[in-house]
Here is the input.
Amino acid sequence: MPLNQLLRRPDNCCTDLDEWLSGAGGKGLAIALKEPLALIPTIKAAGLRGLGGSGFPTYKKWQMIAAQYQRDERYLICNGNEDEPGTFKDRLLLEESPHQVIEGALITALACNINHIIFYINPHLKRATKILSNALAQWQQGDYLPQISKVLATALTLKIMPSPGHYIAGEETAAIEAVEGNFPFPRGKPPYPAVAGVHGQPTLVNNIETLANVSHIVRNGAAWFQALGEGDCSGTKIYCVSGDVADGGAYELPMGTSLASLIFQHAGGISDNRKLKAVFTGGPSNSILTANELSLALDFDSLKQHNAALGTGAMIVVAEGNAIISHIAEYLDFFAAASCGQCPPCTSGTSEMARLTRKIAVGNAGKHDLDSLISLSELLPGSGRCHLVDGAVTVLKSSLGHFSKEYQALISKPYS
Ligand SMILES: Cc1cc2nc3c(=O)[nH]c(=O)nc-3n(C[C@H](O)[C@H](O)[C@H](O)COP(=O)(O)O)c2cc1C
Ligand code: SF4
Here is the structure.
């Protein structure tokens, strides 16, 4: 799994703090300690965007927290819940290069006046948690943390907290609930976490990959980061490629790399010399791209213009000969199981879509089942408190659009 390019070069991939500090590490933090007020403008100029799925400009969230400097407690949740099928980049970052994540979180605390950092990690990522825990202990023995507390004029606390491990627990307000010790039910917004998050205090939630970029940007400058991307894009992206490819894995490449280049140049093409049928782009909660769309750039804006989304950067590849509907049924089962139960349309809607899709997939459905499925896909968007139900509908609708013949063929001869 080549996690070896650009920001995460092999010399950045170490678990020993002294090794990290003798290479790329520590230099960004030293700059941040001297000029904390310059950090948000640098992140803005660099064009860093949230890599947990939304692509929201990172500096905007940071500004909202920094504006709350007069409040007593301010929290950073480093979101490592990572539970979506096909996504494994945060685990790799934590296992192979925990210090760049920790240093990124420390710089973020300085930029936003944050005095509590919580590494919120999926408990199934046991190895990652152990490596992170050892890495954190090394920072706690050094003299950086007292220096940060001095600049913040308050004690900085750091801890690792296992998330509840369910997919929904990665949604930012659900994470806040979990940190408070509650079941991870997403909250309604407003108020936004920047105003009232953990225990009613300002809270920033950033993804592990987002944080991993921060020390490099501060050390090398905004222009350096911008130049890493393709075209107008900034920085890099870790694309997780899985499914019917020869060399699946996590590829850190310029943001905006084309789908063709990712699959054929880097991931070795389609396995067993078959042809490409489709790619679940951005994981199971986004749209499907087909072989006609290989030239598309894989970045937030290009995909949005094409009514698709980059999501977490997961690319699940399907070869000709494999049924799309089996994947859809599997993903809808996943969403139905993940629904937290707060919004009836989401809970019953995802279950019903999963049931109907399974029925169609096994050739046991009629036209009325497909009609019901289509009608649910029209009715459900926007009916939930969080985006889980929207993600489930997006992938379903995309499959109905691109592969309607596959659905039609399966209902044409219902078996009784
Ligand atoms: C159902 C659901 C699950 C999510 N799971 C995660 C997750 O595991 N990790 C993550 O970083 N973001 C996840 N998100 C996105 C977060 O709500 C949030 O946008 C993100 O952590 C913000 O970090 P970023 O700005 O650095 O991307 C999820 C969102 C939804 C709707
Ligand atoms: S949309 Fe679904 S997952 Fe999200 S809060 Fe409502 S019931 Fe829970």
User: Anything to note?
Assistant: The chain has 18 helices and nine strands. Strands lie at 75-80, 116-121, 157-162, 203-207, 236-243, 249-254, 276-281, 288-290, 314-319. The first strand starts at residue 75 and ends at 80.
